[in-house]
Amino acid sequence: MGKRPRRQRAVCARISPRSSYLAPHSSFCCYEEDVWTAIARFLSGRSLVMLALTSKWFYRLMMDDSIWKFACLRDLQVPEPKKVSCKWISLYASAFDGSHSYMFRQQEKHIDWMRIGAFSLDSSQALLTERLSPVEIPEAGNMKKILKSGAYCLLKNIKTGIWIADLQLVRCPICDLSKCEGTMQTLDARHIELFLSEGYQDGTWEYQVAGARDIKGNTEAASGAIFDVKHLKDSSTSAIFDVKSWVGKPQDLQPKAKVTVHAVAVNTNLQKNEGLHLKYHVMRAGADGEIVSIRICQQLL
């Protein structure tokens, strides 16, 4: 049979069974908010931004704070906090744009870093230690003596919520040699809102020493941990103390880290040395404000 005239074929197209896909009043619309909101749950932050730039409609939808809240909690793998003071898209950006605390200060001392992960502090108290063995909160009568030893540091008035942990390698603070290979390891933890705070950005908030001690003699490893006091006995926290499951073998000198829902720890095996100098640093949001950043610094003697 010969081909139908063009006009006849056009009429047939309009009345064919498939014409419902082309009808202007079709029930399907490519701009279905519920559909794209569901799709957004599977997209990375970069993909969300790229999709938002395609049109005004997508920009309005993809910039909704609920979408960035889901992406932030998903990628940080933490439970939802009770409250936040910033928009979730800003929190996501500050967590995943490659920023770390030494970019704001002491860039000349910084050598390298790695992201450990995120954890939650539900209570206003945190226990800092350089030991990776099960910890018990000291009784009131022995508290001052044990904390004075420097093995532990109990912090109060912590800003609750999501905390991000990094492992930093920096040059010795008393060394000015440009070719220094770096002799100080720092477990660096910060509240997720820290980088967005004016007091931090303008340099008003500074780190203060909360405790220090020397560990003399050959030390096999440089370790440090931060625990939420409320969750010290949780099953998830016990994973920190199962050191054989995550620290490296003695000859492995690469840093290792472990993060759980309410705790974080690091361990780096060391070559023969003369000991370590340990310092606990804290940053407060003002003179009597909440603690918003914590550092456990370990320097070879």
From TrEMBL:
InterPro entries: F-box-like_dom_sf, F-box_dom. Gene3D superfamilies: 1.20.1280.50. Residues 34-74 form the F-box domain. PANTHER family: F-BOX PROTEIN RMF. This is F-box domain-containing protein. It comes from Eucalyptus globulus.
